[in-house]
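quick q for whoever's on today - can somebody do inverse folding on this one?? i tried earlier but teh output was garbage lol. tokens:
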């Protein structure tokens, strides 16, 4: 008769092929995580990711080494994005609505849910506007003055317009084909004017020794 070798019972949490010390350590961690969850200590919960330090939350901005038309283009696009984040009115305030706030019943909410209107309204109400920092506002004010300061005169009218519109459209991901069709300018002519204006601004910044930031 063959002898049957019985393996001892494995402790709870120990898997086949896993050393007993590691299984015990995992059981201890699980017990500690359960106690931490009961008392509300998130740092002791099993599998939680440590909170990153503040230095990794803010991405440092590096100033370029020298002025170029690419640096000018990036600064112009950044200026228009910063301008859109400012809490300012874009048009005069008209007549306001004095009607009381409308309360939706269940039938209205169900109808809005079917047409995705409820989700759209929720996104609008939950939208958070992140205000720009003082450094971003300072760079915006500096960059928005460049077309007026360095592209003044009738001979640079279309060049300055191409620089401003190009940065504005790039900042808001505007459809270039539709926008150019609306102002009746070909893409080749628009890009040539924009590149000419960016090069003139970059050369003027180098000539006036404007500091990079």
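ok took a stab at it. sequence:
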């Amino acid at each position: 008769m063959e002898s049957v070798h019985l393996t001892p019972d494995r402790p709870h949490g120990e898997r086949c092929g896993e050393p007993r010390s590691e299984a015990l350590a995992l059981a201890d961690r699980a017990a500690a995580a359960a106690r931490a969850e009961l008392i509300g200590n998130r740092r002791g919960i099993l599998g939680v990711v440590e909170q990153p330090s503040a230095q990794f939350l803010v991405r440092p901005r590096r100033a370029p080494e020298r002025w170029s038309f690419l640096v000018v283009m990036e600064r112009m696009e950044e200026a228009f994005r910063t301008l859109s984040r400012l809490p300012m009115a874009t048009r005069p305030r008209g007549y306001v609505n004095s009607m009381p706030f409308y309360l939706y019943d269940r039938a209205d909410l169900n109808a809005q849910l079917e047409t995705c209107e409820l989700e759209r309204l929720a996104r609008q109400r939950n939208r958070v506007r992140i205000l720009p920092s003082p450094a971003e506002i300072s760079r915006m004010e500096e960059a928005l003055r460049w077309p007026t300061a360095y592209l003044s005169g009738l001979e640079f009218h279309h060049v300055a317009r191409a620089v401003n519109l190009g940065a504005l459209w790039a900042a808001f991901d505007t459809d270039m084909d539709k926008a150019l069709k609306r102002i009746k300018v070909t893409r080749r002519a628009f890009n040539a004017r924009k590149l000419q204006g960016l090069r003139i601004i970059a050369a003027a910044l180098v000539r006036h020794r404007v500091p990079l930031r």
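fwiw The chain has a mean pLDDT of 77. also Residues 75 and 204 are 15 Å apart (CA to CA). so keep that in mind when u check it
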